[in-house]
Amino acid sequence: MLVTGGAGYIGSHAAKALSLAGYRVVVYDNLIAGHREAVKYGPLVEGDVADVSAVRDALRRHHVFAVMHFAAFLDVGESVRDPVRYYRNNLIGALGVLEAIAAESVKYFVLSSTCATYGEPVETPISETHPQQPINSYGDSKLAVERALPHFERAYGMRCTSLRYFNAAGADPEGEIGEDHAPEIHLIPRAIQAATGGPALEVFGDDYPTPDGTCLRDYIHVSDLADAHVRALQSLVETGKSGAYNLGTGHPHSVREVIDTVQRVTGLKVPWTFGPRRPGDPAVLYAAAHKARVELKWTPRFPELESIARTAWAWHRGHPKGYADSGHS
Q1: pLDDT tens digits along 40-61
Q2: 138 among known catalytic residues
Q3: What global pTM score does this model have?
Q4: Helix/strand/coil for 202
Q5: How far apart are CA 86 and CA 39, in angstroms?
């Protein structure tokens, strides 16, 4: 089982879930954004996903039967400022992996996709049949990969599932792995950093058409995402049926609600200020995840925002410098 980007935030949690489910995990990562210390559940192969020969070698040497692809850049704001970087890494990198998979006759592929492929919602909650019209190059680069998959299926006989998740949050409940981005882009860890002496949290926009003027998002625990990936793989193997699934709780929370929750969980004040809207941010995003619950038999174990924030706080309290607290990063 090859996990590209398995040294990163979501990929490392998926590697743990796969290992616990009995799969032999191999992580493929260039460590540009990932952390060597997060690779705990199988060997690490250092390499770039655009290096087709290196990916093919890893597939052959480790007798890989399936690939989960997480290796991608994910900062929406950066994708608006620097689309070249996002198309090069997220699209061309994914095509490199798919080329290697086709050449080595690997039959199963699970794509880490995103709700950003939907763009501005025309209705909420967002189901899998919602129009996909991304408004930033992050979402568009992911959608381009999704659109390529049926062609690879027809040409090479592989089976593919795309998992479109909403806002990944939280950390491993056992505290073995967690979230460590540089710079940090996700709201909950940014709020925790602000509460523990870091710079004040900047809230992007207070004039959205929402009850309190701040964006509404669907926060899904990273371990629940990992569990969904395992179930998606099992479904592919058992049924041979490709598909696409939303992963979320179906319950949106505003930025102000998140700040209040972090303050309650930590017992600390979160200093924050309003800034301008961030380009590429829709006002409201939350999931209709009924399809995943029915077809994958997936149910989030941590559906409450407070439980998500508690696991994030436990990780950051024990690792205030992220993986650097392990001795090196």
Answers
A1: 999 999 999 999 999 999 999 9
A2: yes
A3: 0.96
A4: strand
A5: 24
